[in-house]
Write a structure and sequence with these properties.
Layout: E1 12-16, H1 40-52, E2 57-61, H2 71-80, E3 84-89, E4 107-112, H3 117-124, H4 129-142, E5 146-153, H5 161-174, E6 181-186, H6 201-214, E7 223-226, E8 241-243, E9 255-258, E10 264-265, H7 282-286, H8 289-306, H9 312-315
Parallel strand pairs: 1-2, 1-9, 2-3, 3-4, 4-5, 5-6, 6-7, 7-8
Antiparallel strand pairs: 9-10
Helix pairs in contact: 1-2
The chain binds S-adenosylmethionine.
Length: about 350
C-alpha cells in the first residue's frame, strides 16, 4: 500500500448481475459474448462483506437484472442488509405478473427511456418497447416506488428529447405516473457499442443548447439533469434543465462495478479489471495496489489535461471512459472527455 490514500470508503457497488437481456439496443455497451450470470453465492458474499464494511448503496444492473435467475433472492439479501437499492431496468418484463415480487421491496427504479415512442422503439429494436415501458411505469407508480428516467443521447434521438420530456410530463399529470427525475447523458463508446451513433462534440453542444431553448417555458413536475456541460451551465439559468455541475466521477473515490464475469471495474464504462470477486474480497480490491495506482494515474493525468481550462471546476474533466488506456502510456499524452467542445471552435 502507498502512503495517504486519496479516496474514501467504498459506498456504492454496481452489480452487473448478467449479460442476458430481453432487448438488443443499438447503443448497448455490454461486452458481447456468451450469456453469463454471476454466481449467486459470490454475489451474496459480496453483499455480506459490503454490509460489514458499512456499505450503503447497491445498483443492480445488467444486461437486464430481471433476467437474472436468482433476482428475488438478491432483492431479499439487499433488503436484509438494509441497502438503498437501485434497480436499473428497461422495465418491459415488469408487465408480467411473474415479476410482481419486485414490488415487495423498497427499490429506486432507474428506467431507460431513449426518446419519443418511435425513437425509443427504434433504439431498443422492439416495436412494443415504449408502450411496455409506459405501462410498467404506471405499475411502478401504483406500487408507490420511485422512478428515475435515464436517457442516453446519440444521433438517433438528439432532436426528440424535448418532446419526450413534454410527453412524460403529460403522463405524470394525466395518467398518474410519478417521476422523481430524469437524467440525460451522452452515449459512450464501450464494449460492443457502435461509435457511429455518437454525437460529435459540436453536435453535443448544439443538443444541449437546443434542449435548453425548447424547454425555457416548460414547468415539469420532475427534475431534469444533463451532463457533462463543459462550462455552459449559465445558459440553463432560470429554465428547468439543470446541469450536472458536479460531474465528478465517483469511480475515483467511492464506487466499483462488478461485471457479469466477476471482474471488478472502476466503473461500467471503464473495463479495466482490478481483480475478481471469485478470488478476492471486494474491499481488498478497492484498497489494492492496482486500484490505488489506477486512481493516482487518473488524478494525475486529469489535472494535467484540463487544469488551465476555465470550465474545469464544473466538469472536472468529464468522463474519460473511451481514453482511459492512455493513462498507461509513458508519453504523458493528454486525456479528456470525447464530448468536450471547448476546443472545437464552437465554445
Ligand atoms: C446497460 S443498461 C442495463 C439495464 C437495462 N437493461 C436497461 O436497459 O436499462 C443501463 C443503462 O446503460 C445505458 N447504456 C447502454 N449502453 C450505453 C452506452 N454505450 N453508453 C451510455 N449508456 C449506455 C442504457 O441505455 C441504460 O440506460
Amino acid at each position: 500500500m502507498k502512503g495517504k490514500q486519496a479516496f474514501d470508503s467504498l459506498d456504492v457497488i454496481y452489480i452487473e448481475l448478467t449479460n442476458s437481456c430481453n432487448f438488443d439496443c443499438i447503443h448497448c455497451g455490454n461486452d458481447a459474448g456468451k450469456r453469463t450470470s454471476l454466481d449467486i453465492g459470490l454475489v451474496k458474499s459480496v453483499l455480506a462483506d459490503f454490509n460489514e464494511c458499512g456499505g450503503k448503496k447497491i445498483m443492480l444492473t445488467g444486461g437486464e437484472p430481471l433476467m437474472y435467475p436468482d433476482i428475488e433472492e438478491i432483492l431479499r439479501e439487499c433488503a436484509r442488509h438494509e441497502f438503498v437499492t437501485h434497480f436499473s431496468t428497461n422495465a418491459f418484463l415488469l408487465n408480467s405478473d411473474r415479476f410482481d415480487f419486485v414490488f415487495d421491496y423498497d427499490l429506486i427504479f432507474r428506467v431507460s427511456l431513449d426518446g419519443t415512442r418511435d425513437k425509443h422503439n427504434e433504439i431498443r429494436r422492439n416495436p412494443f418497447a415504449y408502450d411496455g415501458l409506459i405501462s410498467a411505469m404506471k405499475k411502478i407508480s401504483a406500487n408507490e416506488q420511485q422512478v428515475i428516467l435515464r436517457t442516453t443521447v446519440m444521433k438517433q434521438n438528439k432532436d426528440c428529447i424535448a418532446d419526450m420530456l413534454f410527453e412524460i410530463d403529460r403522463l405524470t399529470k394525466d395518467e398518474g405516473i410519478k417521476i422523481h427525475g430524469s437524467k440525460i447523458w451522452p452515449m459512450r463508446n464501450i464494449g460492443r457499442a457502435n461509435p457511429e451513433h455518437m454525437l460529435t462534440p459540436a453536435e453535443y453542444r448544439d443538443f444541449l443548447l437546443n434542449l435548453n431553448e425548447k424547454t425555457r417555458t416548460f414547468n415539469p413536475s420532475f427534475k431534469i439533469v444533463v451532463g457533462p456541460t463543459f462550462g455552459i451551465e449559465s445558459e440553463f439559468k432560470n429554465g428547468p434543465i439543470q446541469s450536472n455541475d458536479i460531474y465528478t466521477c465517483n469511480i475515483l473515490s467511492k464506487a466499483l462495478e462488478i461485471s457479469f464475469t466477476g471482474d471488478v471495474y472502476p466503473c461500467s464504462f471503464v473495463h479495466y479489471s482490478l481483480g475478481n470477486i471469485a478470488t478476492t474480497r471486494i474491499n481488498d480490491i478497492f484498497r489494492s495496489e492496482k486500484a490505488i495506482d489506477f486512481r493516482e494515474k487518473f488524478l494525475d493525468k486529469k489535472s494535467k489535461t484540463c487544469d488551465s481550462c476555465s470550465a474545469y471546476e464544473s466538469c472536472k474533466g468529464g468522463c474519460i471512459a473511451e481514453n482511459y488506456q492512455k493513462l498507461f502510456n509513458a508519453d504523458n499524452c493528454k486525456v479528456k472527455d470525447v464530448y468536450c467542445f471547448r476546443e472545437c471552435g464552437v465554445a
